[in-house]
Amino acid sequence: MSSVSPIQIPSRLPLLLTHEGVLLPGSTMRTSVDSARNLQLVRSRLLKGTSLQSTILGVIPNTPDPASDAQDLPPLHRIGTAALAVQVVGSNWPKPHYTLLITGLCRFQIVQVLKEKPYPVAEVEQLDRLEEFPNASKTREELGELSEQFYKYAVQLVEMLDMSVPAVAKLRRLLDSLPREALPDILTSIIRTSNKEKLQILDAVSLEERFKMTIPLLVRQIEGLKLLQKTRKHKQDDDKRVIAIRPIRRITHIPGTLEDEDEDEDHDDIVMLEKKIRTSSMPEQAHKVCVKEIKRLKKMPQSMPEYALTRNYLELMVELPWNKSTTDRLDIRAARILLDNDHYAMEKLKKRVLEYLAVRQLKNNLKGPILCFVGPPGVGKTSVGRSVAKTLGREFHRIALGGVCDQSDIRGHRRTYVGSMPGRIINGLKTVGVNNPVFLLDEVDKLGKSLQGDPAAALLEVLDPEQNHNFTDHYLNVAFDLSQVLFIATANTTATIPPALLDRMEIIQVPGYTQEEKIEIAHRHLIPKQLEQHGLTPQQIQIPQVTTLDIITRYTREAGVRSLDRKFGAICRAVAVKVAEGPHKEAKLDRSNVAEGEGCKEHILEDAKSESVSDTTDLGLPPEMPILIDFHALKDILGPPMYEMEVSERLSQPGVAIGLAWTPLGGEIMFVEASRMDGEGQLTLTGQLGDVMKESAHLAISWLRSNAKKYHLTNASGSFDLLDNTDIHLHFPAGAVTKDGPSAGVTIVTCLASLFSGRLVRSDVAMTGEITLRGLVLPLQVNM
């Protein structure tokens, strides 16, 4: 065979600065490219170049981190490795970067740096011979005994490993087929060595010196394997496999593998993960998927982005509570006491929870109901859900759905996306650790819709008892049983909930509280909570029920108790200031108005001089008096009343009636005023009324005119024709608020009847309801 000239690398090479390891000739390495210089090199040479030479790079080990993007080029190591770029993978998350798969060809020495920007280019001198058909016998003759000694240690090292592993068997064959001069570099890249030792091998230009430096490394590895085999006699064959050697996954040009310094820990983690999968109680379908994924994970390099995704997926599958559940507390009597202690009123809601407990006693495998609490804000819908979980002895998890407009929040993202994660349902199950928790879907009426899908449609499968036993999250891609989960949804109104979703839930109306209920709630729950939060005691502040009623009627107007709670907080803060000022500013009681029925009033008097304890004893008062909050103290702390009791004053003349208006916040009263004057029989309506309310007014006046004689209604001139030479003006105050609906009909009739009869409407009665032309009052139907 004729002699063949050596293969020459280009005399000018672009330099790739890497800090992740040392690339030796014959080995393969993955490296991340994220610095400005390296990014420009990849874009200019690898992505745009078409020739073979454009894929050859000069890889220089660099101690400083190239991601620092320093303006000046750092000092370069004088010897590097010419490498062939085999693969380029790019990504924009979390920032633009590339991952290169490069294979070392030969050593080179930098002669001169020709340019530094946008990426360094240098004139190089090739140090190793590259031959297409190397003469192995000639190399053995030149190296003689040193080569044979190295080969003997290399064979001994490989044969100590498990030859049933394909990668190890392949490495054994390569020892005989590869040229001897390539073996030191390849084995150094395989065995466990530090970057400093690899750098010394790279700098060893002489082949004889390279053999001499590599033989001690092989001997050290052989001794380590011997010790390992002694300590792991009873382990499985798989555990003997690769401690010092990573399986060869890719062979290109001169084959090699990538060293991983954390291989032991990672291998142990994978073994532990595999053990958890075997011992888990997941269904058969999920177990098959996990076994398949763990096999893929073992064959996958850690540097691949999919490695972390697969590992996170398997860890989630292991952590999910496939068959782990809590035992329900089915003592109905104890549950009733607990619900009564936590919440006052709400009898309908408590009754439904006790019914569920009773049925659970009779049937253990009862599916969890899908409840929806509908009511105004602040009435305790969310806290009731927490109390239900406490009553049942279950875990509780709240999912806020307000503003959610992506179906992936419910069903999760597919694992093909970067940064994919499971949906809130599966993530909540992972958090609570059981498969039968109480899930509170808060604000289900405020779900949005966008280009990313409709989350309300995604909830159809979750909240359907006939489907949720086989719920499939896009991230898991296997079915999960949600039939034992007790779902409780909350909403302020059902008007914005899609009909299909509304049909799957059992609606339980949670009405607003009456004044009497608010007083009880305040003294059972709100006041003790505020006292504890502000560090006060009942011996320092007293809020009588009369004062609580004043706060409810004059300072708040709501269906719930949130604003009432804030008012108590303001009172406690004001009292805390007085208490913190110390004993030199005491509270005195002014009893001058007891005879007038105003009760004990407390006025906080700030004296310039402190009074002695003997003085207070002379007055017959204890040294420290609790601060009593009465109406005068309320005005000092909360300011003048926001809502005066004007009902009796406004109904002090005929032609005024009180109606009831529904709002999502619980409703409110609405005054209707009427007046008459000489005119041409016209009806004037003001107050931003809708067409339906205007029609109700015409119906009311028509029915009154037709029944004027029956009820003795006359106009100013005594005629039974109410519109004879008479104009009527109907006004609905709060003119800036738009009003509409048929339910004001009975209120308008009462208002006009009061006007024409001259009789006052009772101030303690409000009314609502649609009327017909025959005088019937129809039942109220409100779509909440």
UniProtKB/TrEMBL annotation:
Query: Domain of life, per the record?
Result: Eukaryota
Recorded hits in InterPro entries, A to Z, give: AAA+_ATPase (IPR003593), ATPase_AAA_core (IPR003959), Lon_bac/euk-typ (IPR004815), Lon_lid (IPR054594), Lon_proteolytic (IPR008269), Lon_Prtase (IPR027065), Lon_prtase_N (IPR003111), Lon_prtase_N_sf (IPR046336)
Q: Specify the Lon N-terminal domain's residue ranges.
A: 13-222
- Which keywords does UniProt give here? Acetylation, ATP-binding, Hydrolase, Nucleotide-binding, Peroxisome, Protease, Serine protease
GO terms for biological process?
protein import into peroxisome matrix; protein processing; protein quality control for misfolded or incompletely synthesized proteins
Q: Which residues form the active site?
A: S743
Question: What is the residue range of the motif Microbody targeting signal?
Answer: 782-784
User: GO molecular-function annotation terms?
Assistant: ATP binding; ATP hydrolysis activity; ATP-dependent peptidase activity; serine-type endopeptidase activity
The Gene Ontology CC terms held by the record are: peroxisomal matrix
* UniProt-listed Pfam families: AAA (PF00004), Lon_C (PF05362), Lon_lid (PF22667), LON_substr_bdg (PF02190)
Name its cellular compartments: Peroxisome matrix
Residue positions binding ATP: G375, P376, P377, G378, V379, G380, K381, T382
The Lon proteolytic domain extends over: 651-784
Q: EC number(s) for this protein?
A: 3.4.21.-
Give the record's subunit note: Interacts with PEX5. Interacts with TYSND1. May interact with enzymes involved in beta-oxidation of fatty acids, including ACOX1/AOX.
Which family does the record assign? Belongs to the peptidase S16 family.
Q: What function does the entry list?
A: ATP-dependent serine protease that mediates the selective degradation of misfolded and unassembled polypeptides in the peroxisomal matrix. Necessary for type 2 peroxisome targeting signal (PTS2)-containing protein processing and facilitates peroxisome matrix protein import. May indirectly regulate peroxisomal fatty acid beta-oxidation through degradation of the self-processed forms of TYSND1.
Name this protein carries in UniProt: Lon protease homolog 2, peroxisomal
Q: Which organism is it from?
A: Suricata suricatta
Q: Could you tell me the gene encoding this protein?
A: LONP2
